[in-house]
Amino acid sequence: MVTRCPLIIGNWKMHCTRAETEHLLSAVLAQLSLPPEREVAVAPPFTALETAARLLAGSAIRLAAQNLHWEPQGAFTGEISGPMLKELGCTYVIIGHSERRQYCGETDAQIARKVRAAQRAGLVPVICVGETLEEREQGATLAVIRRQVRGALQDQAPLAIASLVIAYEPVWAIGTGRTATPSQAQAVHEAIRNLLAELSNSETANTTRILYGGSVKPDNIDSLMAEADIDGALVGGASLQADSFVRIATFR
């Protein structure tokens, strides 16, 4: 049986100034005793990455970014590149979050370019996929997920797929307080893993981590993590409170 190292990522979205970052991370570091063979990361806004990197130096918590541009440099006002994020100390970068798909019009083709840019910069892409409530009610969940995963992994070799992370975030569960049941999440995670086997091979599929995101809280993390194909969580609002994030990171 393949053992995949659980990964918990706190996505702070557009929250936390540098002073607030210092306060939150200091509290997390004071409370968190990370179990063995478990990985934790936080994704502050760009303005707080340097502050977070300083505070996390020497700790077990890794740094993630919330987005990047597909070019390493150039005339792209307001954007940030993979090499810039790498220089700041980032390990992970979130790509294709539903909020960016919805509000910024990001397409599957653009997301694929960003995935490749992250890999060139030595960053681990965390590729977000998920269906809307309307798509779920129409029975289109798996068709949407397959399209998004295939789109993001265009021209990816099996070895490259094994080094990235997929995050299933049903759009209807993000920030709504609604959460997919463990069995609903597991069904989609299993389908993603089967698709990864189609796109690469069974060994790659079995070693690729697939996270769940969407109103993850201390009171549902244990049941979610008990499912066979759920390898961690992409945590939104609950990552902005030290005690709740620590409880999620130390799920039982």
Structure description:
With 252 residues, the chain is of the alpha/beta class. It has one domain: Alpha-Beta Barrel (TIM Barrel), CATH 3.20.20.70. The chain contains 12 helices and 8 strands. An 8-stranded parallel β-barrel has the order 1-2-3-4-5-6-7-8, surrounded by 5 helices. The longest helix is centred in the C-terminal third of the chain and has 18 residues, at 182-199. The protein is globular.
Task: Please count the helical segments.
Answer: 12
Class inferred from helices and paired strands: alpha/beta
Number of strand elements:
8
Helix and strand run = EHEHEHEHHEHHHEHHEHEH
Distance between the termini: 20 Å
What is the fold-level CATH name, i.e. the topology?
Answer: TIM Barrel
CATH 4th-level superfamily: Aldolase class I
CATH class: Alpha Beta
Largest sheet: 8 strands, parallel, barrel
Rounded radius of gyration (Å): 17 Å
The low-pLDDT segments are none
The averaged pLDDT comes out at 95
Major beta sheet, strand line-up: 1-2-3-4-5-6-7-8
The helicity comes to 40-55%
Please tell me the CATH architecture by its name.
Alpha-Beta Barrel
Shape, per Cα inertia axes: globular
Provide the β-strand percentage band: 15-25%
Work out the count of structural domains: 1
SSE diagram, text form:
Elements: E1 7-11, H1 18-31, E2 39-43, H2 49-56, E3 61-65, H3 82-88, E4 92-95, H4 98-103, H5 108-120, E5 124-129, H6 133-137, H7 141-152, H8 158-162, E6 165-168, H9 182-199, H10 202-207, E7 209-213, H11 221-225, E8 232-235, H12 242-249
Helix pairs in contact: 1-2, 1-12, 5-7, 7-9
